[in-house]
DNA sequence: TGGCTATTTGGCTATATTGCAAAATACATA
DNA sequence: TATGTATTTTGCAATATAGCCAAATAGCCA
């Protein structure tokens, strides 16, 4: 594997990693509907505001969300709608796995 | 956020996390073409066989690949082709970010 | 059985991630 | 300016992840 290819997969992995956390995935899903400020998201997630702020900076660094100031508040919105397509595929993975495990139990 | 919803996002995140590593992303991409055994992948990635074996077990646990024995070898194949669609979206994130950073430099 | 190959697992260290609390920063407005 | 609100950053502790080496396991065949 040459260095260029390696760099490419590292860059790709960084994007996925940014989404690979329950709270951040929730944030992506939520921002798909409408933009939200930090405290709104913190309220929904029931975690500290500082924690949400960090999650948002991870998503922003990855290029997945954009922020816009409005007074003292900062509103975040999803900048790459295609990531929403991930959900249906992930769902199918979960369903397939659930079905196979049910089969295993059934076959016993 | 109720517990059920929380569990759902945790399950989803586990799937994404399984792919969110350069080597594992490379493996997914490679297995899309054809099935491969552990040492083949280790050769391509230039990492220890034991490390690849671990990566494969992560992918298998997530339900993303399946394994089949053939003598002493174990061949892995992709079990959820839809994950390949992730690549084009991830690519667009990378491109958008690159373009925006180029704009920033240009505007200075 | 004994030797060979392929894979997995255990042990270990190094590094990264997560979360909260506290401090710092930014903005609006009395 | 002083106060209040919203957000970000810093410091720290707990946990998770990644990688290698060595040891264990599994299958094949002389």
Task: Please give a handful of descriptors for the protein shown.
69% helix; Arc Repressor Mutant, subunit A; homodimer; 108 residues; three-stranded antiparallel beta sheet; alpha+beta; DNA-binding
Tell me about this structure.
The structure is a homodimer of 108-residue chains. Chain A has 108 residues and is of the alpha+beta class. The first copy, chain A, contains five helices and three strands, in the order ααβααββα. In chain A, 69% of the residues lie in helices and 13% in strands. In chain A, strands 1-3-2 form a three-stranded antiparallel beta sheet. In chain A, a hairpin with a 2-residue loop joins strand 2 (65-70) and strand 3. The termini of chain A are far apart. Chains A and B meet through helix 1, helix 2 and helix 5 of A and helix 1, helix 2 and helix 5 of B. The structure holds a DNA duplex (30 and 30 nucleotides).
| Proportion of residues in extended strands of chain A | 5-15%
CATH class placement of chain A:
Mainly Alpha
The interface involving the most residues is between:
A-B, 42 and 42 residues
In oligomeric terms, what are we looking at?
homodimer
Tell me the total number of β-strands of chain A: 3
The main pleated sheet of chain A reads as: 3 strands, antiparallel
Q: What series of H and E elements makes up the topology of chain A? A: HHEHHEEH
- The N- and C-terminal alpha carbons of chain A lie at a distance of 44 Å
Low-confidence stretches of chain A: none
Question: For the record, what is the CATH homologous superfamily label of chain A?
Answer: Winged helix-like DNA-binding domain superfamily/Winged helix DNA-binding domain
What is the overall shape of chain A?
Answer: globular
Number of H- or I-type helical stretches of chain A: 5
Radius of gyration of chain A: 17 Å
Integer average pLDDT of chain A: 94
